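Researcher: I'd like a candidate sequence for this fold, 113 residues long. If you have to choose between options at a position, lean toward the conservative one.
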């Protein structure tokens, strides 16, 4: 009989070892060893796996895409400067049409489709 670890979050479920597909910004990073809780479904990765994921993310140019920016002003409207990494990742350019909509009061989605 093998000993199973209890979930670190709910402390009730057993952790099952599984290989799962991991996505970052909807880009597939591959399959990774994970432990998944049988009760709450929370997924855990150990330190080595996390390091591996970071490496793959860096290789695919996905690292550091999350960024902070400040809202500026242009006349009567406000503007947001996009960081270079996001511009490259999303292949944005001046004059390209994008659509935007709020998702609630704290999130703005900008889409090129
Ligand atoms: Zn759990």
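Model: Candidate sequence:
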């Amino acid at each position: 009989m093998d000993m199973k670890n209890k979930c670190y979050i709910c402390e009730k479920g057993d952790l099952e070892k599984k290989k799962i597909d991991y996505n970052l910004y909807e880009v597939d990073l591959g399959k990774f060893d994970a432990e998944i809780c049988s009760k709450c479904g929370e997924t855990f990765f150990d330190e080595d796996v996390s390091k591996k994921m970071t490496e793959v993310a860096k290789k695919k140019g996905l690292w550091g895409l999350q960024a902070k920016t400040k809202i500026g002003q242009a006349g009567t409207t406000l503007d947001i400067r996009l960081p270079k990494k996001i511009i490259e990742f999303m292949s944005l350019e001046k004059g390209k049409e994008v659509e935007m909509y709020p998702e609630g009061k704290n999130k703005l989605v900008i889409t090129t489709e």
